[in-house]
Write a structure and sequence with these properties.
The complex is a heterodimer of chains A (about 200) and B (about 200). A 4-stranded antiparallel beta sheet of chain A has the order 6-5-8-7. Chain A has a two-stranded antiparallel ribbon with strand order 1-2. In chain A, strands 3-4 form a two-stranded antiparallel ribbon. Chain A has 7 helices and 8 strands; from the N terminus they run ββββαββααααββαα. The longest helix of chain A has 30 residues. Chain A has 2 domains: about 30 residues, no CATH class; about 160 residues, Butyryl-CoA Dehydrogenase, subunit A, domain 3. By secondary structure, chain B is of the alpha+beta class. In chain B, about 55% of the residues lie in helices and about 15% in strands. Chain B has 8 helices and 7 strands. A 3-stranded antiparallel beta sheet of chain B has the order 6-5-7. Chain B has a two-stranded antiparallel ribbon with strand order 1-2. The longest helix of chain B has 28 residues. The chains are: A alpha+beta (about 200), B alpha+beta (about 200). At the A-B interface, strand 1, helix 3, helix 4, helix 5 and strand 7 of A face strand 1, strand 5, strand 6, helix 3 and helix 4 of B.
């Protein structure tokens, strides 16, 4: 069996049945496919979907001024940006905090199901979709950084203060888990069914 | 040996193929799944090294200088990157604080350090055998190094707080902005295939 090195792309012949093989050039561990790729990705996708609920229902930021105190969830924060007149900003945060995490979970779920069903359709498009998911996931960390800066800066009691809400760790967990889920998914699995069919037909 | 180097299995679909001789600046894509396979840049490792040194200097400034400040009713305040994480930790959001420190400070510093180690060690002939390990550590750090996301977050926070008080961008923010550009340039000029050409091996 010929296996490609994940680090340096060197092709090596690995005797089938051997447990552990290493790349002769860079010493990376050689594996034909990611270990338990589907199971691991499923586990991470499900875990992040669960965290997504408190991430969106719990407040992430509380701002208190002399007159009032207000707790905002992620969505309420976006709405606040929109109503305070900066719709481009609201759109940026909406894309980063809502559309990217949801899009990632849906895309990964679809990719996992399509691989498990042995689909051979639109393999090229599915690979492109995976590469996109892999690339844009980091941007959903935006809101966590925004909250960190607002909280660090707006500390002028009693005039005004800002506190991070209980939703913060859940939101951070969603971003981390979906990023790891994208790393554990092996896109080559998308093509294995096609390969098996071609082999069967000679 | 050259020929063997040109034969690869696509990382996206495992199709084995030969990369044709590429013109400088040319990129080869997999005909089946469209993944990028190789880009020929010529000998750009020296350029990447120069950029990495610039990135290291910018990292020091971005991590020590205040990234943004605020003034309201005669009171002034400012925060650095680590200050933002510290305040999250102090207010009981430890996971958030760890994520902020890791993605805005540790991962970028580690990425640039590994890149410098890699490029400097390649000046030795033959290249040391631990280069593969450095390369793997660097690739592991790359996705968690989120300077461009942090940069955008500073801009969003500046505008968000502007509703409450006067905000001013700090020196750290400008350093971070420059760092984002330099890191992007590093990613564009760095050709891993040039690295592997310098590593001797026996099957």
């Amino acid at each position: 069996m010929i296996v490609s090195c994940p680090t340096c792309q060197l092709l090596s012949r690995v005797p089938s049945g051997s447990e552990v093989a290493h790349c002769p050039r860079c010493a990376a561990r050689l594996m034909a496919r990611g270990h338990y790729s589907l199971q691991r990705t499923w586990a991470l996708v499900i875990a992040s979907a669960i965290c997504y609920i408190p991430a969106n229902t719990l407040p992430v930021l509380t701002t208190s001024t002399l007159r009032s105190s207000q707790s905002d969830t992620v969505l309420a924060g976006i709405l606040y940006l929109y109503t305070s007149g900066s719709w481009p900003l609201a759109l940026i945060v909406l894309i980063a905090s809502v559309m990217i995490p949801v899009g990632k979970l849906v895309s990964l779920g679809y990719l996992l199901l399509s691989v498990q069903r042995g689909s051979v359709h639109a393999s090229r498009e599915r690979t492109r979709m995976f590469r996109l998911v892999e690339k844009i996931g980091r941007w959903s960390m935006l809101d966590i950084f925004v909250i960190a800066f607002v909280v660090a800066l707006v500390q002028l009691p009693p005039l005004m203060t800002a506190q991070p809400g209980p939703g913060v760790p859940f939101f951070a967990a969603v971003v981390i888990l979906t990023m790891i889920a994208a790393f554990t998914f092996d896109p080559r699995l998308i093509w294995d069914q096609l390969h098996a069919q071609q082999q069967a037909h000679g | 040996m050259r020929d063997l180097d040109a034969t690869v299995a696509c990382p996206g679909c495992d199709l084995i193929q030969r990369i044709p001789p590429l013109p400088t600046g040319g990129t080869a894509h997999c005909p089946r799944c469209g993944d990028g396979l190789a880009t020929r840049l010529g000998n750009t490792l020296e350029r990447t090294l120069a950029l990495s040194i610039a990135a290291a200097i910018l990292l020091v400034i971005a991590n020590t200088a205040p990234v943004m400040g605020l003034s309201a009713a005669g009171v002034q305040a400012s925060t650095t990157l680590s200050g933002a994480a510290e305040e999250l930790w102090r207010q009981g959001r430890e996971l958030g604080a760890v994520v902020v420190v890791f993605c805005s400070i540790i991962a970028p510093v580690a990425y640039v350090s590994f890149m410098l180690t890699l490029l400097l060690s390649l000046r030795r002939n033959p290249a040391p055998s631990w280069i593969g390990a450095v390369m793997r550590a660097m690739s592991a750090m790359a996705p968690w190094s989120m300077d461009e996301v942090v940069m955008l977050a500073i801009l969003v926070a500046l505008i968000k707080i502007a509703a409450l008080a006067n905000t001013t961008p700090g020196i750290g923010m400008y350093a971070l902005g420059a760092l984002v550009v330099v890191l992007a340039a590093i990613k564009v000029t760095f050709d891993p295939r040039e690295v592997w050409r310098k590593v001797p091996w026996t099957a």
